[in-house]
Amino acid sequence: xxxxxxxxxxxxxxxxxxxxxxxxxxxxxxxxxxxxxxxxxxxxxxxxxxxxxxxxxxxxxxxxxxxxxxxxxxxxxxxxxxxxxxxxxxxxxxxxxxxxxxxxxxxxxxxxxxxxxxxxxxxxxxxxxxxxxxxxxxxxxxxxxxxxxxxxxxxxxxxxxxxxxxxxxxxxxxxxxxxxxxxxxxxxxxxxxxxxxxxxxxxxxxxxxxxxxxxxxxxxxxxxxxxxxxxxxxxxxxxxxxxxxxxxxxxxxxxxxxxxxxxxxxxxxxxxxxxxxxxxxxxxxxxxxxxxxxxxxxxxxxxxxxxxxxxxxxxxxxxxxxxxxxxxxxxxxxxxxxxxxxxxxxxxxxxxxxxxxxxxx
Length: 361
Description:
It is a single chain. Helix content is about 35%, strand content about 15%. The chain has helices at about 5-25, 55-70, 85-90, 105-115, 185-200, 200-215, 220-230, 240-245, 285-295, 300-305, 340-355; strands at about 50-55, 75-80, 100, 140-150, 175-180, 215-220, 235-240, 255-260, 270-280, 310. It is globular.
């Protein structure tokens, strides 16, 4: 289909969704759908699939275009950042989305615990280790997002780099590194893991210290990787795939990476995941199930991961060139499903530290 026509159709479809949302209310206490009307299941191979996504559109569009072509199901994509999670919560039983694609497992598990996701045993689910999926398989991770220290080789050597996350709180590193805002999904998940390892008191002090030590605090990781590549800061706390993205740049690509906390008595690198969730009360349930089965195929798991240069969680799928397999380094032992228990509390702790959840305009 011509891209401009397809885009117009998607916009019209999404406007219709918003119009319905306005009529149906925003509370999760909203009216149940009429089982003989708007909630009627659509046969596989026809109708539409509404995907909510907190991932960058450029990473999602090739995958969704492939599904659309192979399934005959029209995909409408609504992208955003943190507000996508809130949208699912606001719609509640009056859901207009079918699938949620998120960069943060903590947010997915938070939704599951509050009955905004529903379970489904997708074909091939066993290829994903249990610690990377919900107990009812309402969500599962597909690609690893490991927290690493990316550095500029012209500014600092690997030997000089800090080897643990805790070291960033040392005055030695003041004004030499960058971090994201406190509300960034990866930061929230990482801080949750630190709370699990250190307790709240130490984690709170660490947050205060890195806020004071950071040379720059950005909205997202793309700005951080570019700042490191340009030598504006020596290093930054990012997800591992941003290192691979910077390596691919035609300039400012003399960068390296340290996987932190790899010592025998250290916690290991924190691994979050990007994955998919099945929205409860989805209006197109059968099409959502078709997508969940389809995306579990190894070639589509690979497509999901490779688009952003993330590392496949399925160990049978090789990572992009120069990336370490998830089995090649020590990882923290906090099960990702535990992130949902502390998702809201962690945001409150971050706010208490003075590290802003959002970047002011």
